# Entry
Amino acid sequence: MPKLELFSKRKTNNFLLDHMIEILLLLMIVGISIISPAFLTKNNVLNIFRNMAMKGVIAYGMCLVIISGEIDLSIGSQVALSGVVVAWTSKFLAEYGIPIEYGALIGILLALAVGIFFGSFHAWARDKFNMPTFIISLATLNIMYGLAALICKGFPIVNAFPKWYVFIGTGKLFGIPVPAVILVVMFFVYDFISRKLDLGRNIYAVGGNAEAARLNGISVWKTRLFVLCSIQVMCVLAGIIDSAQVRSAAFGFGRGWEVAVISSVVIGGTSMLGGIGTIWGTLIGILFTGVIANSMTLLNVNEFMQYVVNGSLMFGAVMFNTYMKRKRN
Amino acid sequence: MSILRTEGIVKDYPGCRALDDINVSFDSGKVHAFIGKNGSGKSTLVNIFAGATFPSAGDFFLDDEELHFSNPSDSREKGISTVYQELSLIPYLSVAENIFLGRLPKKGKIIDWEKTYRLADELLKKMKVDIDSHTEVYKLSMWQCQVVEITKAMSFNPKVLMLDEPTSALASHETERLFEVIRELKKQDVIIIYISHRLQELWEIADTVTVLRDGKFIGTEKLIDLSHKNIIHMMFGDVTPSVRPDDLPVHDEPVLTVEHLTRSGKYEDVSFELRKGEVLGIAGMLGSGRTELLRSIFGADPFDEGTITIGDKVITESSNPIRMKELGLGLTPEERKSQGVILIHSIKNNLCYSCIDKVSKNHIIDEKKMTAISEKQIEDLQIKIADINSPISSLSGGNQQKVVIGNWLNNKPTIMMYDEPTRGIDVNAKGQIFQIMWDQSRKGVSSLFVSSELEELLEVCHRILIMHLGKIIGEVNPDDLQIDDLYAICMGGSI
# Structure
C-alpha cells in the first residue's frame, strides 16, 4: 500500500526510518510468536481484529478529524449513548407491540440521527463561535455520558436485541468475525475517501492551512461538517458492535476510549497539527496497539500495566514523529 | 558623544548580495533617518546592528570598539536597543511589568513590586509623558504603546536606539505626540536611527538621512539641504522607462464594475471599472485599504455597502470565495506563506487546490489529469522545481508565488487579482510575473494589481488608481508621469 503522495518524496531515502512503525509491528509479531506459540494461531489473530474493530472504526474517523486540524474527545460517550438509544427504543417500541426485530432497526436509525446531530453541533459551534473542538467535544463528552445514564436510568438494558443485531457483534462471515469484516471494509471506505475523493483532498487542505483553503474556494464548513459527523457515525457503529457483543447496553461503555483511539492515529504517523496523515498508517497504529494489548493478555501481564505501556507508546510515537519531521526538513 | 560606524559591510544570501561594501556612520544627539525602498538592504543592516544576523564580511564599531554579535541579547548588552514595528508588549500586564519583563526587581526571591513601579515611573517621567505605570497595556492608545516600547528600550541605557517604522500604525495627531518624545530623547546623547517609509515626516523629526539602494550605500545628507524630490531620486535612481509591450489589447466592455463599495474603517465609496484584457493597478501606501478592498471583492472579507458587478451578475451583499471563484475571479493573497499556499503539501497539490472540482469526475480525483495540468503550468510559468511531489516549502519565494498564480490560472479565471505578488522575490522572478500578467491580458484575462512598489505599477499597468486612507483619490495614466510624481501623490494624498 503506497503512502499518500501528498508530501512524500519528502522521505529520508532510508527505508528503515520511513517504515519504522510497520517494521516494529513485524518485529513484535515475530518476537511474541516465539515467546507465546498461542499468538500466531488463526483464532487469536481473528480475535485481535475483532477486539480492535470498535476502536478501529472510530480511529479511521479520528484520523480524518485530526488531519482536518480538529479533534473529537466525545467519542466514548457517543459509543455508550448509541448503544443505550438502540436498546431503549427497541424496548420502548416493544411495549406498543412492535417486535424487537424492527424496534432495534428503528433504534439504529435514531442513534444515527443522534450521532449526526452531535457531529453537526460540533461543526456548527466550531464555525459559528470559532470555539476549539477540543473544548466543544469535552463538553459534549459529559453531556452525552449524562444523557446515556439518564436514558438507561443507571442500569444496563438487557433483552432488547434481536438475533440479527447480536450477529453484528458475535457472528461470523465465512469464518471471520463480523466486527473484523467491518474493520476491513471501513478501511477501504476511508482509504478511498482520503486518497481518491475531492472531499479527501479538501480535508488535507483545510488541515494544512484553513485560511489558504478558504481563499482557494474550498468550503471549510462543509469539510469540517463531514469529518465531525463521520466520526460520530463511526461511534454509533462501534456502539452497535459493542452492545451486540455483550447483548446489553450501559452508560459506562466506551469510557476513556479517546486515549486509545488517538494513540492509534498518532502512532500511525498522523500529525496533531493537521494536514498530514494516512488511513493506512492508522490501520497499522490500530494493529500495533491491538497486538500489544493481546500479547500482554496472553503473557498474563497485569491489566493496569497495559495502561503504562500504552501511555509510553503514545509518547514514543509522537516523539518519533517529531524527530522524523526535523529529519525530513 | 558616541559614534556607530561600519567598515565595508557585505552580506551575501544565496544568489543575492543584500549589502555591498557599506560604510556609514551615525553620531549621537541626532535623529538619523535611514531609508530605502523594499529590497534595498535597509532591514538587513538593521538586523546586523540588532544581532539578528551577521555580516559576511566587514566590521562595525561602536565608539571604536569592534562589535561581534551572536544573538540579539549581545547587541543589547553592548548598548544597541531596537524597537520593532510589531510591538512586543503583553496586553494584560501593566506598563511597569512590560518594561521590566524578565528582569523584575527582586527582594531575595520575591518580586519587589514597590521598586518595580517606582523605577518605571522614573523612566516614564524622564520621557516626559503622562502614563501611569500601573495601567494595563491594552488600555493604552497606539502612540502610548510605542512610547512604552521606547521606554523599555531606553531602560537598558543604550547608546544606540533603533526605531523601525514607529509611526506606521499611528494617526497624525499621535505621530506628533511620539515626535515630542523622540525630540526629548535627543537631549540624552543617544544615537537614534529612525527607519520610516513616510517621507514627509522626515523633515519634522530627523537631522540627517542615509539612503541605501539595491544593497549599496547612496549617501548621507543633512535634511535641510534636501527636497522631497532629491530623496526620491536617491531612493530610486534614474528610473528606467516603462517596458510594457504595445500589443496588449484592452476591450471596451467592463468585466468588473465596483460601485460605492464601503467597508467602514477600511475603505469607503470605492468605484471603478475593469475592462476586458486590462491590467489595472492600485497604488497606495500600507494601510490605504487596498488589500481590504481586494479581499472584499473576492468575498474573503465582508463589505457594508455598494455593489460589485461581474458580467450580468450583480452582488449587493458580502459574498464568499466559493461564489466569486465560480464567477471567474482569482486572488493571489498578500501573505503568501500563511494565505497563499499550504506549505507542507506538494507542489502538485498546491497547483490544483483552486480547481479540485475540475480535476475530479463524480468527485473522484483524476490523478493523471492533475499531473498533466500541473506540469503544463510549471512549463508555462517556468517554475523551477526538482520534483512535482516535493513540498512547496522547498521552493524559493519567487517560485512559490508562481505556484500560487498557476493554481489560479488552472481554474481559468476571467479576472485575476494580485495583492503584492512581488514581495520578497528576486528581480528575475518579478519580470516573469509581469510577463504572466501580460500573457493573460493577451488572452483577454483582466488583472487587478496591487503593489507598494510604485515603479512596478508604472511598468506593468494600463491605468493606475490611487488609493489614500481608504479612498480612491484619482486615476493616472502611467505613460504621463514619473515615479517621483506618483510617489508624491501616494504619500501626499492629492493629485
Notes: Chain B touches chain A through 33 residues (CB under 8 Å). The mean pLDDT of chain B is 88. Chain B is about 30% helix and 25% strand.
